[in-house]
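[User]
Protein folding is very new to me. Any chance you could explain this protein sequence and its structure tokens? I have pasted everything here:
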Amino acid sequence: MSPRPALCYALLVIDLPGLAPRKPLRCACFFHSSSERASAEGMSLRRSNLKAGLGKAFRLASDKKEFTKPMPGQQTASKTEKEPVEIKLAHSPDSDDAFMFYALATHKLPTPGYKYTHILSDIQSLNEAALAETYDVTAISFAAYPSLRDKYVLLDCGASFGEGYGPIVVSTRSFKPQEISGKRVAIPGLKTSAFLTLKLFEPNIEPVVMPFDKIIDAVQNNLVDAGLLIHEGQLFFPEKGLHRIIDLGIWWQEQTGLPLPLGGNAVRRALGSELGRHIAKTIRDSVSYGLEHREEALNYAMQFAREMDAELADKFVGMYVNKWTLGYGERGKQAVKELIERGTSAGFLPGPPTVEFLSEE
């Protein structure tokens, strides 16, 4: 038997990616041109040495992690593990929500294994999108929750409450709050908490639904008798020559002694409670970061501050991103339940008047 085929075989086996180049030479030294080496005893010895050399070469390569080409199954698993899970997070395009999600949107907050995609839309559109479970996590009006409870569960952080203030009804002329009965009122959505609270105050009105940022113009142009303002309009309406008819946050507090719950964050039940709690912690951490780095978070939020200077935007953010946003607490949860119960009792919301919160614990 000629040693040449064995030589070629040894070079073919050893000269693989990841092995040190000196290995083929070491294995080749087992072969000589002398005919005496063709004996059975010599060939047996060479095969033993070759086997030992190959084993040592592969062990060295493995120890140095140079032989890294994985098996097909391992490669697929590795790619799956590295692929981040996308979380679609939807919220309003206003300065308080921008402040709240600053850390998350600008990657100040690490989210290993998850990629958060932010979708900005007005609250009425988000309430409607939630009916189809369009987004994994979404801002919703508390008034919309009874229609969504089978699809979403409320997180106990990231909410907006009005404590002694809230949505405001304005008009081009001044009149008593009771005189709003029978009037055409521009509202930001039929499922908003602001509209539910207005109906609890006075059910006999004619609602005219329109985007929240078009309401002031509609009132100024006398397209409606009055307008229900949410977001920044609550602060700069005097500059537009409008009169406040009623602050529903004040009225609610007088009626209940509680803050007025307006909007919260909800997570799809289909994601499971474990991921839901993980998302809740991420949102809470993002809120905490914004509050701890207020100046930089406010600078980021200013791009969403419609018609407000920095001082007014800071005031608005302080109204709706605060201790209630970090966590409802028992009083906050009681306020949400009170709103749902009153709305259900009045026939404005579908029953039952039950509310479920998903906490981090």
In short: The radius of gyration is 34 Å.
